[in-house]
Structure formats: structure tokens, C-alpha cells
Amino acid sequence: MTTQPPQNLDNHPETFIDVNSSLSLSPMGCGTWAWGNRLLWGYEQTMDQDLQQVFNLAVSRGVTLFDTGDSYGTGKLKGRSETLLGEFTKAYQGPNQDKICLATKLAAYPWRWTRQSMVNAGKASAQRLGRNIDLVQMHWPTANYFSWQEWPLLDGLGDLYEQGLVKGVGLSNYGPQRIKQIIKRFTERNIPIATLQIQYSLLSTYPVTELGVKEVCDELGIKLIAYSPLALGLLTGKYQENGQVPKGFRGIVFKQMLPKIRPLLQGLEEIAKFREKTMAQVAINWCICKGFIPIPGAKTCQQMEQNLGAMGWRLSDGEVMELDNLTQKVDKQMVQNPFQTK
């Protein structure tokens, strides 16, 4: 544990990030996978009023980027996350109202294989959102299994941009080699790639450390977004090795991971106590210090308040380095997204 005095404890105002002339992103966002997902996150429609309050709190405090996907919510809840965001946005009146940015990801479903199917998907998402999409993203690449499917879908994203239906185009789960190929094709159409979203946290550094994603994105002017910055909740300190764990799939992962990541959690806890912050706030702030826009989820105002506490300050260089070292020593990191390309 570093013994140097805390640095940058004074107010550190966060500024919005201008991606282009019409698209501006807050330095931290809110992921809304849980807003409609029953299987992994236990969503119920009785939660909607609380989720509206979470939305209101976030926007009023400067977190105006909300990331969703047209696959968030299945069956009778198809597109539920987008629908809720549309309702919440329409109902909200208050600070930063004009800065709300709705970013959605369009899924590369097997039945979507033409560029028009992607345009239609974008229009359907916009209808659920009650407004045009601000940032449209390819949810995952198909290069690892159906490479022939991917280019038409990407071209469809470009069509949405050219038709003025979106303000920006982004990617998700792409590696540097594939990004360069897409940039070349989109440059010919004068369409910029604004963002890249990857799984990134203290327990998931593979796209950066092994693939070199950050260097390529920095060179190309692509802003990085970190999803699952708390590693499904493993980095919050809420769960203990011999204690209660979440139900279902997350519980299985937690039981396997918690004993293996003990040194990292101990180091994270020490820095959190030294900083008078929570472990989750330190883990999110680490992502910000690494140049990412983290998008942690929140289902309650208490969780959102905690996320907000990750803003307005910075870990010292020594603390970042210490966490980097602990991460490298972890016996096992999170399972990587199987769609992640090189």
C-alpha cells in the first residue's frame, strides 16, 4: 500500500467530451443492461418508478450518457430498456436535460444480414426511445463465426448516419486489426467511428494489455467506453468468499473468482480506506484515469450515488500503478466476451 499523501483531493471538475460537433458524452455514463433483464439481474416492472429516480439523479448530477441495446429485454420485455429510457427522458425536467445522450447497440442477430435490416432495427430502437438515437453501435462483431454477415450490418450503421438518423456511430467488442479495416471502409464514405466499447475493469484488461486497443483508438481519435467496470459486482466489496453471493450465473462466477482475486480486493480496499471512498468508486475512478468513459449500472439511487462518488477526483499515479501491479498478479481474470475480435 502506498504511503504517499492523497493527491488531487480538491475538486476536480469533470468536463463533457465532444466527439463531434453534435455529439457530446459525459465523463461517466450509466449502463442499463439490468433495466429489463430478468435472467441475470432480476428485473421486474415494479422497479420502474425507482429506475426513473435513478435516471433523474444521474442526469441532474451530470451523468447524461445512457447505454442500452435493442437486445436488453427479451420475450414480452423485448426492447424494455430502450422503452424505459424513452419514457424517463420524456418525463425528466431539470438540470442537463438538453445534454441527455441515448446510446444503443444493435444486435447482430442471425436473421439480420442485410444493411436494410440494420436500418430498420435502428428505426425500431428510435421508436422505442421516442427520439432519434444519439450514438448507434454495433453490439458485437460476427467476424469470429459469420464473417460474411458483418459488412452489410456495418454498412447499415453507416446508412443510419448518412440519413441523419443518428449523431454518431460506434463499435463494441472489436480489436485493433478489425477496427483499422472498418475505418478504411468508413473513411471512403466520410463516416467517422466515434467510440469503441469494450469489457474493461481491473479484472478485464485483455483488450488493452494484450491487443493494444487503446493505442490504436487514441491514434484514430476513437473514444473508449468501458462496460462492466465493476466486473459484474466483484469489485464492489459487497461479496465475500464465504458469504452470500448473487443467485444464478453470477453466483457461480463469484464462487470461482473470489478466492483467486483476494490480493486485488485487499489492495483495492486499502486504497479505498485511504481515500475515504468505497471500493467501487476506486475501481471506477481507475477506469477514468486510464482514459475510459466507464458505464457502471445502477438499479437504485443508493447505487447511483456510489457511482457518482467516483467522479470529481483522481487517483494518484502511484495508486494507479499499484492497482495495475495487483491486476497483473491476479490468478484469474474475468472470462472475455467470446465475440471480442483482434
TrEMBL record:
Gene Ontology molecular function, alphabetical: oxidoreductase activity
Annotated NADP-dependent oxidoreductase domain residues: 27-326
Matches recorded under Pfam families: Aldo_ket_red
Entry annotated with the keyword Acyltransferase: no
Keywords from the UniProt entry: Oxidoreductase
InterPro entries assigned: AKR, Aldo-Keto_reductase, Aldo/ket_reductase_CS, NAD(P)_OxRdtase_dom_sf, NADP_OxRdtase_dom
Entry GO terms, CC: cytoplasm
Protein name: Aldo/keto reductase
PROSITE patterns: ALDOKETO_REDUCTASE_2
Keyword Oxidoreductase: yes
